[in-house]
């Protein structure tokens, strides 16, 4: 099945009339964004009440009574936003071209390193630095800590990428080749 070709043909509406598939994808994305707005911004006092009334994708109506609102929830609005966006990425040459930017590719290859290193540096270095900075202005202290932690994260994630991730990729490819032979 060539998903991209079928998406370019569109969705059959009636006889020979077809609707471009990106309209449906943007509709799914917009529905998720509208739900996020309605459930979080318009009526924030009902944010947790919505979880009981509209069970997530993996719940049934009677099983969603004892949930912990402090834990992350599988929400339908998040699912629709991701589904609409990823369908647009999968079928649109323009979006694929924009995301093939070398900066995005570079960051994508190192995203795991950034993810693992930044939290460690924020909690160990950033908070401690903020506490000991003698700057009276809190905004200036925050900005200084942000840029120091950003620079340290960039260096630390590159070291992590070269020391851990690249050897892991080499080992995994060697293991896969060994298994295949």
Provide structural commentary.
The protein has about 180 residues and is mainly α. The protein has two domains: about 5-100, no CATH class; about 105-180. The protein has helices at about 5-10, 20-40, 50-55, 75-90, 95-100, 100-110, 110-130, 140-180; strands spanning about 10-15, 15-20. Strands 1-2 form a two-stranded antiparallel ribbon. A hairpin with a 2-residue loop joins β1 and β2 (about 15-20). α2 (about 20-40) runs antiparallel to α4 (about 75-90) and α7 packs antiparallel against α8. The radius of gyration is 23 Å and the shape is extended. The two termini are about 30 Å apart. The mean pLDDT is about 85. Keywords: Membrane, Transmembrane, Transmembrane helix.
Please provide a brief summary of the model.
Keywords: Membrane, Transmembrane, Transmembrane helix. Helices cover 72% and strands 4% of the residues.
């Amino acid at each position: 099945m060539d998903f991209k070709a079928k998406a370019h043909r569109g969705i059959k509406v009636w006889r020979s009339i077809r609707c471009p598939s990106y309209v449906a994808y943007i509709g799914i994305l917009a529905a998720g964004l509208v739900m996020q707005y309605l459930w979080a911004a318009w009526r924030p006092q009902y944010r947790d009440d919505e979880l009981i009334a509209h069970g997530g994708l993996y719940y049934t109506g009677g099983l969603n009574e004892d949930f912990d609102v402090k834990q992350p929830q599988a929400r339908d609005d998040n699912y629709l936003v991701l589904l609409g966006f990823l369908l647009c990425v999968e079928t649109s040459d323009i979006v694929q071209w924009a995301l093939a930017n070398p900066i995005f590719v570079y960051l994508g290859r190192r995203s795991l390193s950034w993810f693992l290193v930044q939290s460690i540096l924020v909690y160990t270095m950033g908070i401690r630095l903020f506490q000991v900075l003698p700057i009276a202005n809190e905004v200036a202290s925050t900005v200084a800590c942000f840029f120091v932690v950003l620079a340290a994260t960039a260096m630390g994630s590159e070291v992590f990428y070269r020391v851990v991730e690249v050897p892991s990729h080499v080992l995994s490819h060697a293991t896969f080749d060994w298994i295949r032979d």
